[in-house]
UniProtKB/TrEMBL annotation, chain A:
It comes from the Eukaryota. Residues 112-183 form the SUI1 domain. It holds the Pfam family SUI1. Belongs to the DENR family. This is Translation machinery-associated protein 22. The lineage of its organism: Eukaryota, Viridiplantae, Streptophyta, Embryophyta, Tracheophyta. GO terms for cellular component: cytoplasm; ribonucleoprotein complex; ribosome. Residues 71-101 are annotated as: Disordered. GO terms for biological process: formation of translation preinitiation complex; translation reinitiation. It comes from Musa acuminata subsp. malaccensis (Wild banana).
From TrEMBL, chain B:
It comes from the Eukaryota. PANTHER family: MALIGNANT T-CELL-AMPLIFIED SEQUENCE 1, MCT-1 PROTEIN. It comes from Musa acuminata subsp. malaccensis. Keywords: Cytoplasm. Gene3D superfamilies: 3.10.400.20. GO terms for cellular component: cytoplasm. This is PUA domain-containing protein. The lineage of its organism: Eukaryota, Viridiplantae, Streptophyta, Embryophyta, Tracheophyta.
Amino acid sequence: MAEKPQAVRVLYCGVCGLPAEYCEFGPDFEKCKPWLRRHAPDLYPDLLLKEENETDADKAARQLQSVAISGSGDGAGGDASSAPSGSASASKQDEVKRLPGGKIKKKEKQEVVIEKIVRNKRKCVTVVKGLELFGIKLSDASKKLGKKFATGASVVKGPTEKEQIDVQGDIAYDIVEFITETWPAVPETAIFFIEDGRKVAAA
Amino acid sequence: MFKKFSLEDISAQNQVKASVQRKIRQSIADEYPGLEPLLDDILPKKAPLIVTKCQNHLNLVVVNNVPLFFNIRDGPYMPTLRLLHQYPDIMKKFQVDRGAIKFVLSGANIMCPGLTSPGGTLDEEVLEETPVAIMAEGKQHALAIGYTKLSAKDIKTINKGIGVDNMHYLNDGLWKMERLE
């Protein structure tokens, strides 16, 4: 019993539920402050002391400061620098937006895209796109996939007349290894997952 | 991975049979030797052990409605942060610098530079693909649980890109799920 380490009681903030020392990174530090002052005054000594002693004059001064800062910030952002950067970011966004929609761009790049589609709560289909770009016969591939994972796999006409392979079941996890092993022409870096509508590299 | 996690993501809850219970207990004991004397407190033999299956092959080990451990597929069991806070010394620790805290708390994976900079520390013995506790500079408690992608030595030498995958962090879905019903 003696060597049994004791459970540490961690002080959790009553407002945000984080350990009190992480309140400053929490969702709403301002709201936590009154609670912290009461329950954990030693954690943020400088901050809370300042707050307590803060007189109206201080507050006013701080407000003035913040106004001044924000004002100067606006001034800096308002001139030449903001315009080009804004346009650049806009064009970038356009590119990103165009990619998922326009399949033409994908054709240029050789990559395999794997997507998991949930059919109902616990069943799903794994869709593999782009294998043909590596000179792989889709009918062959679907047969191999079906055999390997012991499920149904079929070549399906996907959106925009492109063919893809539908494999029943969730095999997204194992499929990367299988693809790279059976078709050495496909590098692991060319395989991507789609997660929450975002493209994520497999490797 | 717990960024969005709620009761809806749970697909099945089962009270597992004794043999499975023993297996889980054994693998947790193997993995966290420091936890062994406490295991009877954490996982009482009498209380029913419930394994909750969630999407993406995630399993939660639940006792008395409190999630205690989780694992993916047949991977290693990792304690939840609430449990880790109680027994902070059961896991190997990495420390990130202060600048990284904010990103880690919004779910980002831990990048090597945050671990190698003056504010961070590494446990040299850690190999790749092991669970670690992520501590933070100037903080007492863990802020995340990670799964190393590189060994500690590699993190030091490569010093670029993702070093540790962020599995579970403060204020994510699992953190908010204090009790399961």
